[in-house]
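agent: user wants the full assembly modeled, not chains individually. Plan: 1) parse entity lines 2) check alphabet per entity 3) run joint structure prediction 4) return tokens. Steps 1-2 passed, two entities, 511 residues total. Proceeding.
--- entities ---
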Amino acid sequence: MIDLHIQKILDGAKQTMNMDINLHINKGEFIVISGDSGSGKTTFLRCLAGLEQFSGYVKVSNTIWQDKNTILKIQKRNIGFVFQEESLFLNMTVLDNLLFVNNNKEFALKLLDIVNMTRLQNSMPSNLSGGQKQRISICRALMKKPDILLLDEPFSALDETVKIKLYKELLDFHNKFNLTTIMVSHDINEIYTLCSRHIEIQNAKVKKDENINDFINNKIANNNLEFKAKIIKLVNNEKYKIAIVNINNSFLNIKLHTNKNYEIGEYINIRSDKLSIC
Amino acid sequence: MIDIISTLDFTPFLLSFKLAAVTTLILFVICLPLSWYLANTKSKIKPYLETITALPLVLPPSVLGFYILIALSSNSILGNFLDEVFDIQLAFTFSGLVVASVFYSLPFMVQPLQNGFESLNKHMIEASYIAGKSTVVTIFKVALPNIKPALLTALIITFAHTIGEFGVVLMVGGSIEGQTKVASIAIYELSESMDYTNAHIYSAFMLLISFVVLLSVYMFNAKEKRKLFGINK
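--- prediction returned ---
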């Protein structure tokens, strides 16, 4: 359904990268894109939406969105986009935010009902919580009845309880409206819970492209526990380095085996089979 | 006192308000697309355009007035062209004052609007495009309602600044009764002729209007900020 080849030079904080992503995406897939910060995930999504210029092509069904001769305007692309940061129209009520996209009040109220926001239809965005704002953002993105829904880390600022509710609502929308959904996320739980296909991007190129069942099976096959830990303190010994790390508010001393230069505040993955507790 | 006020000639004030209203309207039409472009462009010509629009802030009014007068006089190419082709003479006329005021007050309209557009949440504008809305619809339905304080500041400050013009007005318009003799010129002439009573009344009137206008802007802006961003204090 979507065939694309996106090439773009990205000026990253540390280096310049050549984005080169070639993908075929089937209708109805739920794809989660993960990768390190600055690896080009958001840029990829923005290129697909037409918000960034690039060279290459994007073909959706039988329509060319971009090639050498054509660039379809953003307004003509049948997409919904949910941004990581707040993007609701602050001068409009919740209902007017939805009606601005498509003046179909019945459909707007139906969407608000699904996410239990009907009673807040006349509220202004500034009076909503973070979770409520993202719910409305998703509803607004769906008002256009898009074929493709793009989400850029929509739940990253929300707490776990709200996230779990929104996962269910997003999956319901995905199935009910027969969407092709592409979401950027760092959260491993979101990858497991939501997607049918997981793509990992590194240095603006596809590093992994796997079916979610394969992804989970690989994790199980490893038979190891993996933790994400934040380095709180680094101690240099004569023979080795020790890092004090925070794993879910539990603190551990880790002996570092590699010669890599770690920094305080950096996140590292710790596998149980490689762990040495000091 | 009432007798003095009842005999007072308000024509210069009416002329000042007419000049300010026409100038503000023209500048809004010109500056809306210009400030949108300046707020969104990454072009290399941006600093040049910003410099040109800001020049009236630093140039002495006499310099600006001198160049405008030269450009509008019938001896210049532009003045001659307007005179020959359209039978329009701009020097020492109300229309000439409008042209001069548009140049003189340009930064007071451009800069608040540009700052307002630059402060907008970029994703809000992109969301409007993704919703299928054109740039014009986005400006009027999303951008302008979300920069109401900046919009009001631009309109009011431009209006107030035009009312307060003196140097450029004197250079380009002179002091022709009922045509180019605006309030600031009238006060200058009253003062020169030592008619301090009327000069006081005219000046106090200008002071009062300016105070009320600015107070309204600041009170409205505070209210709008609370409404848009939910600030309680």
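agent: reporting back. Chain B has a mean pLDDT of 88. The two ends of chain B are 44 Å apart (CA to CA).
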